[in-house]
Amino acid sequence: MTPAITVQELRKSYRFPRRRRGALRALAGLFHPDIVELEAVADVSFDIAAGERVAIIGPNGAGKSTTLKMLCGVLEPSGGGAKVLGHTPWRDRRALAYEIGVVFGQRTQLWTELPVRDSFALLRRIYDQDGAAFARRQGDLVERFGVGALLDQPVARLSLGQRMRCEIVASLLHAPRLLFLDEPTIGLDVTAKAAIRDFIREQSANEGQTVVLTSHDTRDIELVCERVIVINAGRIVLDQPTDQLRRRFIARKLVTLRSQSPTLTLEMPGVSRRPSEPHTTVLDIDTRETRIEAVVAAALALGGIDDVTVEDPPMEEVIHEIYAVLHQ
Question: Mean pLDDT score of the chain, rounded to an integer?
Answer without folding.
Answer: 87
